[in-house]
Structure formats: structure tokens, C-alpha cells
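re: ur question from the group chat, yeah i did fold both. here u go
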Amino acid sequence: MIVCVAVVGHQNNPLYLQSFTEADDALKLHHVVHCSLDVIDERVNNPKKSAPTLNETFLGLLYPTENYKVYGYLTNTKVKFLMVTTDLDVKDADARNVSS
């Protein structure tokens, strides 16, 4: 189940963030999305240390927590799409369908 969707600009500025849960979880989801941006920066700046290459736009699982899993998609213009889910394994084809 998708609980949050975020679009973040190339300078890590938030462009859009929508949560689909109770208002109490909104702040927690903002924190999870923010922590995921650090993982994206690490993968982009150190491509040898992680599995995806710079040519791949689907970044896969970025930040698993106890309750949530965050998946990422990076465009050619460095705009980031983040999807926070609960107990859902997302594949490359599934992420492309959500982002289009």
C-alpha cells in the first residue's frame, strides 16, 4: 500500500509531497522522505559502492524502516520521485507505471 508520494527538485527542494495516511503520520513520513534523499545522494556520488549505475533511473529500495519502505526514481534532470510503501516489494516495471 502506498502511504506517501514525494517529488523533490534537483537541489533537494520539495516540489510535492502527499501522504495518504492519518495526519499523525505526516511528520514521520516527511522525515522518512528526507532521510531517503541522503541515500540518493550517496548512490549518485559513489556509484561504485552501490548496485545501480548512473544510467539506471529506478533506484530501487532506498530506505527501509520498521514500518515503511522507500523506493526512488531519478530523472535525467535530477528530479527525484519517492514512494513510501508498507510491506510492498516494488519492481522496476511497477515503478515506471506509477511515475508515468
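okk and heres the other one u asked abt
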Amino acid sequence: MSSSSSSSSSLAAILAIFLVLVSPFATSTPTNTTAIATADDGDKPTAYDLLEAYDFPMGLLPQGIKSYELERENGKFYAHWDGSCSFSLEGSYQLKYKSTISGYISKDRLTGLTGVSVKVLFLWLNIVEVTRRGDELEFSVGIASASFPIENFYECPQCGCGLDCVSGQSRKLKFKVNRSSVSSI
């Protein structure tokens, strides 16, 4: 068997699996190949609903998404804010989201991410992949990864103040890190 026919067979198998995974959205969105929703679309799933349909907590994305797009045939997605968004979590991690982020979504896996970065020491590194492994989420910056309990992501952070603000009042939430699972690749 040639490598091109083997690649075609593999691609066909991946697409078939993907179509099974996105079938919940096929019944709730139009039959075109791209689902597009805005914050005003009350009858369409939100970007946060989309995350949960793929077994991710909604808190992976900050509040304020204005619209999103999903290409169901390959899982490519785009999420849009009015501007960029940044915040700190417990003073340890600084995160930045560009006005548009994108990547590929499948069950328990976000890959090819662009537009999301984390400050590690003095460097800003792009988060390129997020994988759910049971009750933990593993974030990869390419050369290293770290795992965090999924409970850290049940609530959406707010641009500017993260998880430390509610109606202008500060509150303390402990962002847990599983230090034993920080690794270099």
C-alpha cells in the first residue's frame, strides 16, 4: 500500500470519528459546514456550550466572547472578543488572549492553539495544546507542560481581574497546580 493511500485511509478514519463526536451539534445548528454564533444568538449553543460538548469546562475561556465559528468537518474553531483579554490567577500565572483565538477541538483535546499565551518567569509562551486526562487538564507550551485540577476551570475568569473579582469586590480563590505533573518535553 502506498503512503498516499495509507494517509487517505487514515484521514478518512479521523473524519469519520470526528463526525460521530460532533453529532450533538449537527442537530442544533444549521446543516452548513460552519456554525457561527454571536452573543445575541439565544437559540444557538455558545462557545462555552461548545467546550462542554467536547468534555472541557467552560472556564477555559474568559467571559465576554462576542462570537465563535466552528468548522464541523475538521474541528477548526475561532473565538472572538471585542479586544484582547489579560488577567492573573493568584498572582502566579499571567494569561493573555488575543482578540481572536483559534485551534482545533475534539473530545478531550484542543490542538494547534493560537492567540493564548502564559507568562513563565520573564517569558511569554504560547499555549499550543490542552488535553483532558480524567479530572486534570494538561497545558502544553511545546517545550513543557503542566497539569491542573479541572475544578480550577469550572468558572470563567474575567478580563482584567481573573477569578479575584465579583462586582468590584475582591475574593480569594485558590488556583491549584499539580506540581508533580509539570514536565519538560
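fwiw on the second one: The first strand starts at residue 34 and ends at 38. DSSP finds three helices and 13 strands in the chain. idk if thats what u expected
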